[in-house]
Amino acid sequence: MRVKSLVALLVLSVATAGLPGCGGATPDGDAPPAPVAASAPASGVEATGPAVAPADRSGLGGPGASAGPKPSTKAGALKAGNPNGGADVPAEARAVDTSRPTRTIGSGTAASCTSAAVVKAVAAGGVITFDCGPEPVTIRMTATAKVRNANGPRVVLDGGGKVTLSGQGQRRILYMNTCDGAQGWTTSHCQNQDHPQLTVQNLTFAEGNSTGEQAEGGGGGAIFVRGGRFKVVNSRFVRNRCDRTGPDLGGAAIRVLSQYENKPVYVVGSTFDGGVCANGGALSSIGVTWVVLNSVLRNNRAVGTGANPAKAGTPGGGSGGAIYCDGNEFTVRIAGTLIEGNKANEGGGAVFFVSNDRTGTMRIENSTLRRNPSDGFETRGYPGIFFLGARNPTVTNSKLS
Q1: Is the pLDDT at 322 greater than 60, yes or no?
Q2: At the N or C end, where does the chain have fewer CB atoms within 10 A?
Q3: If residue 116 lies in a helix (H) or strand (E), which one and from where to where?
Q4: Residues in contact with 207: Cβ distance below 8 Å, sequence separation at least 6, in sequence order
Q5: In the chain, count of helices (H) and strands (E)?
Q6: How far, in Å, CA of 176 to CA of 227, rounded?
Q7: Is residue 147 one of the residues assigned to a domain?
Q8: What 3-state class would DSSP assign to 389?
């Protein structure tokens, strides 16, 4: 393990000060105190942080909603996540029941499932399923599907385990932003409203690319979300991209900002593979709480250089090979999950976690983090992790190597 001097690298998250309403950014020029190297994690330590699931909301699958459709076992059906994860999935984190959809994309053939049909359905909102014939299908997106904020409160996109949405390496695939006037403002507090509630499940998102997108700081090669609620269930994200440089942008697969009352983004039974971005080769956020259950994150890369704020003469970035989390008060829980083969040019080959006001916490339970090199810096005793928060990460029945 290589540990470089952190003095110049850990004045973090300056770029977030320009994001209105995101919460968790330090004022320009405020340097956090130098970190103390963490001690080695103790196996079996009792988990800390919030243990009670947030109140159930209809759009996220609460009591009365079924566990949702089971993934198909037919040949070619989607296989995602860590089947041996074993982490309990709370009711609101499960797939939404889509047995009575609001609308259906396609009329029974692959040819009927078009980019235009996806864009139209997502804008209309509701519970959306696909009828593209019996075989797996790839829909090549020629435009980004955007959620209209008034057309909810639930927006559910369920591919039935047979649909891939491809950005063709040219565009972001899915976008939701409660503070984007072009998508309609529905409250006076757009950064903290409980709708729309977006769920993607039983889908593959491939070759999304948000390079050059500058709104809200960019990032989110496959999916960008600000506001409302968001969760991912039984889905795959492969070969997604966002800008390769920048001190704070990230999320080759997913970028999230400003979730309602800091309720968690759930990622359940899903796989993230081969993502590349300046930071957060899979997931990235500012001031957002995550619960990642029974998932796999592998072969993702944070390829920026110069960290955050960017060192003189560098474009910045390079942290969080798989996961990049910045902000003030937020938590991350990783359970039943495999994180392997990810890499960061700077800090946190697996996870980069910085809570600027040192209130944030992280828990790792029944998980394996291995072979996630940090070419610049990481926290002593926690291979693949760079962490600044309220206390050392809690590691229970997990292997870090």
Answers
A1: yes
A2: C
A3: helix 115-124
A4: 166, 167, 168, 169, 238, 239, 240, 241
A5: 1, 28
A6: 8
A7: yes
A8: coil
DSSP 3-state assignment of 287? coil
For residues 308 and 35, give the distance between their C-alpha atoms in angstroms, rounded to a whole number.
Answer: 15
Let me know: does 400 contact 41? Beta carbons within 8 Å: yes
Residue-range definition of the domain harbouring residue 93: 14-35+58-400
Amino acid in the structure at residue 376: G
- Contact, 330 vs 357, CB < 8 A? no
Whole-angstrom Cα distance, residue 295 to residue 322?
12
How far is Cα of residue 60 from the mean position of the Cα atoms in its chain?
16
Q: What would the pLDDT profile of 43-84 be if each residue is shown by its tens digit?
A: 333 333 332 333 333 335 433 333 333 444 343 568 899 999
- Closest among 261, 258, 266 to 290, alpha carbons compared: 266
Could you tell me if 225 and 258 are in contact, meaning their C-beta atoms sit under 8 angstroms apart?
no
The number of distinct structural domains making up the chain is: 1
pLDDT digits (tens, 9 = 90+) for 362-383: 999 999 999 999 999 999 999 9
Tokens 């330590």, residue? 45
Tokens of 96: 């939404």
How many residues does the structure list for the chain? Answer: 401
pLDDT at 237 over 90: yes
Is 280 within a domain?
A: yes
330 occurs within a structural domain: yes
Phi first, then psi, for residue 380 (nearest 5°) are -55, 130
Residue type (1 letter), 394: T
Q: Record the tokens describing residue 279, joined without a space.
A: 């930071």
User: CA-to-CA distance for 165 and 175, rounded, in angstroms?
Assistant: 13
The mean predicted confidence, pLDDT, of the chain is 85
Q: How many Cα atoms sit within 13 Å of 276 on the Cβ side?
A: 9
pLDDT of 284 higher than 70: yes
In a domain, 209, yes or no: yes
DSSP run (H or E) holding 122: helix 115-124
User: Are 315 and 287 a contacting pair, CB within 8 Å?
Assistant: no
* Rounded Cα–Cα distance for residues 378 and 385 (Å): 6
Q: Any idea which residue has 């235009």 for tokens?
A: 116
Say whether pLDDT at 12 is over 70.
no
